[in-house]
Amino acid sequence: MNKSLPEQQLTPKTNRYLWFISLFVLIQLVQIPIILFRYIGIKDTPLKIANSVLYVGAFAAVIWLAIFLLHRLPGQHYFAKLNSHQWAVTGLGLVAFFAVEIVLGLLNAKLTGQNQTANNDTLRQLMGADSWSLYLMAFSGIFLSPILEETVFRGYLMNAFFKPNAFWLPVIISGLLFSVAHGSTTIISFLIYAGMGWVLAFTYRKVGSLWASISIHMLNNLIAMTALLISIK
């Protein structure tokens, strides 16, 4: 946003920990309306519409809050447009992202017998419970979750607590907390999400715009959601 934001309008560093924890919790809570679909009658369309509006509205509100807090940090244009070189770096990040996901996914299947992570299994169960939750989660997974998670774990976390020239420590911390948020049940599945988080954080730091990591995250979720939709249908 604005590089000349008055100092008194910036979020004090002591409060940033509370805001990050709040955002971390809200990322989990925003999925509650999806769970509520299980308790709504099949023919209760008005209530389903209201619950859908609640779900999308809650997501939008948390995204707004995350972006608002991000812009209260000193400094830079977090959502700058990418040039051709930055898109090329993003493309390399995408290749690394899929490599980490595929290699560690195969390792997880071999060592633990899990063909998918516990997080993906939970998503599949929620999406398969109701057609409304199916399409709402597909929409949020492809568009809303990447924007929210990248704003929080790459944008806010890496800029609220680390200097702009810091590189490896914020990348490592970002990946670890990103994995914690996805509720892994095995060490390998934890490393899958941590590895993906590290690639996203590395790409963001190299490019300097959240659109780089958001683009990778969206494309991955598009593929994952498409596969889930096919398997459920």
The count of strands amounts to: 0
Question: How many separate structural domains?
Answer: 1
Distance between the termini: 43 Å
> What is the overall shape?
globular
What are the low-pLDDT stretches, counting only 5+ consecutive residues below 50? 1-8
Q: What structural class do helix, strand and pairing data support? A: mainly alpha
Beta-strand content estimate: under 5%
- Main pleated sheet: none
Q: Approximately how much helix is present in the residues? A: over 70%
Average pLDDT across residues?
Answer: 91
Alpha carbon gyration radius: 18 Å
Order of helices and strands: HHHHHHHHH
Count the DSSP helices: 9
What does this structure look like?
This protein is an all-alpha fold and 233 residues long. The chain has one domain. The protein is 76% helix and 0% strand. The chain contains 9 helices and no strands. The chain has helices at residues 13-29, 32-36, 45-71, 84-112, 118-128, 131-160, 168-180, 187-207, 210-232. Helix 3 packs parallel to helix 6 (131-160), helix 6 (131-160) crosses helix 8 (187-207) and helix 7 crosses helix 8 (187-207). It is globular, with a radius of gyration of 18 Å. The protein starts with 12 loop residues before the first helix and ends with a helix.
